Amino acid sequence: MEHENSAILPQLFQDLVADIQSRLDYEPVDRAHLDTTPGHKGQIQCTRDALEKERAISHLALDAFTLYAKGQLSRLGTRQNRHTITYCIPNEILSYILELAGKDCRARWGARVILNLSHVSRRWREVALETPRLWTCPLMFSTKFVDICIARSRNLPLDICPGARRYADRLHEVLPHRQRWRSLRLSYSPKDSKLVQPSLSAPAQMLETLHLRCRNTQWDKDCASDSKVLHRNPFRGNTPHVREVLLSGVFFPFTSPIFSGLLKLSLNSMQFDKVDTIYQLLRALEACPCMESLTFSNSLKFGPDVTANLQLLSTAPFVSLPHLQLLRVKQQEAEPALVFILSRLTTPSNSTLSINVLYGVDGLASIVPVHVRRSPHYNLQNLSSARQLKISMTTHYDDDVRFVLYGSGDQNLDSDSASQSEFSINFRKGIPLRDASTQLFETLGTVFPMPHLQSLCIDIHLNGLDHTPTTSTPSKTAFVEFLGRHPSITTIALSGCAPGFVKSLIITPTRRVCPALEEPSIRKCSVRNGTMRKLVASRPMPGLLLNQPDDLWGLQRLRIVACNNVIPETLSDLGLLLEVATDDDMGESSESGDAEEFFEDDNDWEWDDLPDSMP
User: Fold this and answer.
1) How many C-beta atoms surround the C-beta of residue 411 within 10 A?
2) pLDDT single digits (tens) 57-72
3) Where are the transmembrane segments (predicted)?
4) E runs forming strands in 220-325
5) Distances in Å between the alpha carbon of 196 and those of 62, 185, 210, 598?
6) Can you tell me the distance from the alpha carbon of 395 to that of 598, in angstroms, rounded to the nearest whole number?
7) In terms of Cα–Cα distance, which of 420, 344, 331, 355 is closest to 382?
8) What phi, psi does 413 have (nearest 5°)?
9) Which of 56, 138, 564, 607 could link 149 by a cystine bridge, Cβ 3.0 to 4.6 Å?
10) Full set of structural domains in the chain with CATH
């Protein structure tokens, strides 16, 4: 093939050159009559000019041949593409695929994704140009393409979402089309507030989503509050379709119609200086009976006037949110006024509650509303409907403890059901673990009731501290009283706990906690053989003892995992009385090599000092 090409190409190329020469009326040079002697300089220059023209014609021939070859290859590629599977996809389906790709990617990569999609092939470009939803975010493109983008979007609603970069100075480019805005998501600095205000000064009848973030690094110097309002009447009160509002570092009066009929509301980084603002917020929430998501986060603060006059708010109305799916609180410090707001909200049992407070927590009552005993129901019903509760305690330093409480109303803590009832409470205490855990168990079950609690899990991570009565064990009565408040518990899992936690489960003549307990699980605890024997002996299977109380169900199953102090003989003896699952059964290996020096049982709790009876 190479030999044939070498013979054919010169003739083809010469024919192409001759054709170009004829079209240009150019007479080729006769090289045989060229006189190149030094005495004929004029003739030499003429010859050089003639050869230069011939060389230029050869370049023209090469360019023409290359252009033809590229065109031919392009046509062949187009014909080849038409015989691929993707080319057989109808335009309507391809348009939908492009919409999905653009929707998922444009928030991160902006206009580049849409332009790349339109450059895949000629057909893709035609379909992209006829897909108006690809062009409904005009500020992703540079200023000179905004009008083109808006034209391609036809009359569809526009999304004013410039992405991660701040485009407050470009809002004027889309102001003439404000009547078509569907969403406005904008992040700006305080110095650009005057650029944002014009966009809020006229009706936006198609607006559905409003996200405004004023990011200020100097919080104390310029704080958004009810005394520093960005706009008194945003959009002139004409936003009938708004369903989602997020304000961060931005304050609007809660009397504005924009807070009516919302499905999602998020208030972040702002300060309440006036007591009336609390009333206005509650009335605004009352005007949103279909609210699905409510968030208070990122340094929501309250002025001294609000904090000092909380008692004046006792007449504030309760707000029922029967459709609420998520209530989220994320604060740097505990705020009593925010707890008051939570106390006026009535949420359904199948909702999710998330509370995360980093500092200033005196106890559960400082971050969660306290149950009023004269009230038949607790207002945050997903707390009172909990059936499972997991308590995680982690020590970061000797006097810093992190608590995570996770509860669920479902039988399975890992359930992914969309309608499940669950809550998580995350906070820190700047006191030793013993004192912090004592405070927790003293209030848990009283601040908010859990009458249906069936499963309890306690997980302790000491991070280098030893299990001693002065570090990890609560007071003598706190944990026992907590168990006494929840007689419906049937399963208890203890992980990394001191032996005193296990001892509290032993039934005595004067103490009968968790009579319905069927399955205790003990993992990585320093419990000893005698304690385990006493536990099982105090909770025999029904019918094994005479005069056994009817309300004492007896243990059905015992799990012991990675408890190095419990010897095999003890496990064998216990296996004669009930089903025992050990390390091998659970698929875990005991870490005997890393066992800590644990204290004897007698050093844990003084059992004679426990109360004679439990409530």
Assistant:
1) 11
2) 788 878 887 888 888 8
3) none
4) 244-248, 264-268, 271-272, 293-297, 301-302, 319-320
5) 58, 11, 13, 64
6) 18
7) 420
8) -65, -25
9) 138
10) 28-83 (no CATH), 87-129 (no CATH), 157-346 (3.80.10)
538 contacts 552 by C-beta, under 8 angstroms: no
What residues does 407 pair with on adjacent strands? 389, 423
Which of the residue ranges 79-88, 190-199, 201-210, 348-357 would you say has the lowest mean pLDDT?
79-88
Mean pLDDT within 194-209: 93
Q: How far apart are CA 37 and CA 171, in angstroms?
A: 76
Asked whether the beta carbons of 576 and 541 are under 8 A apart, the reply is: no
Q: Any idea which residue has 């899990």 for tokens? A: 457
Containing H/E element for 424?
strand 422-429
Of the listed ranges 78-92, 131-145, 404-418, the least confidently predicted one is: 404-418
* 3-class secondary structure, 295: strand
Can you spell out the DSSP letters for 324-353? --EEEEEEEE--HHHHHHHHTEEB-TTSEE
The phi, psi pair for 189, rounded to 5°, reads: -100, 160
Question: Cα separation of 579 and 599, whole Å?
Answer: 28
What are the beta bridge partners of residue 455? 388, 491
User: Which amino acid makes up residue 25?
Assistant: D
**Residue 494, token pair as written in the block:** 């203890």
| Nearest-angstrom CA–CA distance, 50 and 228 | 83
Query: Which tokens belong to 208?
Result: 């559905």
Two tokens at 381? Answer: 């019903």
Place of tokens 């005595």: 508
Cβ pair 421, 349 in contact under 8 A: yes
Nearest to 163, CA basis, from 187, 144, 145: 187
pLDDT above 70 covers a percentage of the chain that reads: 80
Does this model's pTM top 0.90?
A: no
Query: For the chain, how big is the Rg over CA atoms in Å?
Result: 38
Q: Which two tokens stand for residue 140?
A: 């992703």
Q: What percent of the chain has pLDDT over 90?
A: 40
